[in-house]
Write a structure and sequence with these properties.
Blueprint (H helix, E strand, L loop, with lengths): L1 E4 L5 E3 L12 E4 L13 E2 L2 E9 L3 E8 L5 E7 L1 H4 L2 H16 L8 E7 L22 E7 L3 E3 H8 L4 H20 L2 E2 L8 E6 L2 E6 L6 E2 L22 H4 L7 H17 L9 H10 L5 H4 L6 H9 L11 H11 L7 H10 L2 H10 L47 H23 L2
Antiparallel strand pairs: 1-2, 1-3, 4-5, 5-6, 6-7, 7-9, 8-9, 10-12, 11-14, 12-13
Length: 433
């Protein structure tokens, strides 16, 4: 790959962003044989699209440079066929609006959203980012912070299981990001490893949660996105209530997904793997995964009890918040955690080497005897992070359980099969995402 100056035409290696002769912005040169990208070099508001970064089911992500400051951002542009779908565009807009409303260091920061005219015009053509959804335009774009690193999904596909120190640091940050969203009444609904981006940081991974396009606002009054594939989530990480097509999805559905992701981070295997979407949904609704301590012998057996609760079929039986779940996980490893959210924040800032030391010196609680009721974990002498814990505080999110009638197994199975019959094709499309 190389880049070419838009003024003098001098060609440079791909890592050179600006021309050494006139200081102009360099744009990536397309390789011979690659399909022509008509948007490279196009101006989007006060940014220029300078390089392709990644492709997804919804759109293409570009590296862009601000014309005056030369600051680097990422701009996501919907694919042409997606841009013609009203529901997809509305979801894209919802993703921007939701992320823009959240104040969290663990959620990707978005900057702008707007309509994008046809790319056949000259690179200097300006756009009107404030145009309304539904206008007759070529496509739509969203500007966000530029992230350097990789998606958790890519890491797991390449290396399978993660070491506990790294996985637990990621878990703490994911939990805090979701807790921020839940505090705003926002439920992600499609959490999966591909929506957890790991930025490179001096002390370890720095998490950014992506793709809030499937969110449900608890106080929502706007149009609902009901097309399959926009709200249900990814089959492997769906909660039972999502797999059954129920409407009472809440923050505990996100908690189910987080527990499934932790299971995969520590074992290298998905919790509810199967050969087809129908089998995946049936397992999510009717079965529990193989105990984590069996698939990952190095983890404490007490973690099996924590995951059993987090992956309960009845959402009322799960942890009351993601923070509560994260705390239970850390305590299962024998780590001390200060009360409230503050205790999780301390561990989220702890460097990976300190995590390793703390885990090496910790004493996990003895596993609960079969049939015995759960008991609060005892205090241990585990090493504490080398930072002072913040003052205790109570969890900010506390939702009263929603009444839910019990369901006979045969009724449950019938309900799932009916859902699969109606929604299977959409779920297959999701898996290809």
């Amino acid at each position: 790959m190389s880049r070419r100056c838009t003024v003098c035409g001098t060609e440079y290696p791909d890592e050179v962003a600006f021309c050494g002769h006139d200081g102009a912005i360099n744009v990536q040169v397309q390789r011979p044989g690659d399909p022509a990208d008509r948007r490279l070099g196009q101006r989007v508001g006060d940014h220029v699209l300078v390089a392709r970064v990644a492709d997804g089911a919804m759109g293409r992500v570009y590296e862009a440079r601000q014309v005056d400051s030369r600051a680097r951002v990422a701009i996501k542009v919907l694919h042409d066929d997606v841009a013609s779908d009203r529901v997809a565009v509305e979801r894209f807009k919802r993703e921007y609006e939701t992320a823009a409303s959240l104040d969290s260091r663990f959620v990707v920061r978005v900057l702008d959203f707007g309509a994008l005219p046809a790319a056949a015009a000259s690179p200097g053509v300006a756009v009107s980012p404030g145009a309304a959804v539904g206008a007759s335009k070529d496509s739509w774009f969203m500007t966000m912070e530029y992230l350097v690193g990789q998606e958790l999904g890519g890491l797991l596909r390449a290396s399978k299981a993660m070491e506990p120190a790294r996985a637990l640091r990621v878990l703490c940050q994911v939990g805090l990001g979701l807790d921020d969203a839940h505090g705003f009444g926002v439920i992600h609904r499609d959490l999966k490893p591909d929506n957890v981006f790991l930025c490179e940081g001096p002390e370890g991974d720095e998490v950014r949660l992506l793709d809030f396009g499937s969110v449900k606002l608890q106080m929502e009054t706007g149009p609902k996105l009901t097309a399959f594939g926009t709200t249900l989530g990814s089959p492997v990480y769906m909660s039972p209530e999502q797999a059954m097509g129920r409407q009472d999805v809440d923050h505990r559905s996100d908690g189910f997904a987080v527990a499934s992701i932790l299971y995969e981070m520590l074992s290298g295997e998905v919790a509810f793997g199967a050969g087809s979407v129908a089998e995946i949904l049936m397992r999510i609704v009717n079965e529990m995964p193989i105990p984590l301590s069996v698939r990952a012998p190095g983890v404490p057996q007490g973690l099996d009890d924590v995951l059993e609760k987090a992956l309960a079929k009845d959402k009322k039986a799960r942890h009351g918040s993601v923070i509560e779940f994260v705390r239970a996980v850390l305590e299962a490893f024998g780590l001390p955690v200060a009360p409230g959210r503050a205790g999780i924040e301390v561990w989220a800032r702890t460097a990976v080497p300190e995590w390793r030391q703390a885990l090496a010196e910790s004493t996990p609680p003895a596993p609960r005897p079969f049939g015995a009721p759960p008991v609060p974990p005892a205090a241990t002498g585990a090493a504490t992070p080398a930072r002072a814990a913040a003052a205790p505080q109570t969890d900010a999110f506390d939702v009263a359980p929603v009444g839910q009638a019990s369901m006979k197994p045969w009724v449950l199975g019938a309900a799932v099969m009916a859902a699969v019959a109606v929604l299977g094709l959409g779920a297959l499309a999701l898996l290809a995402r």
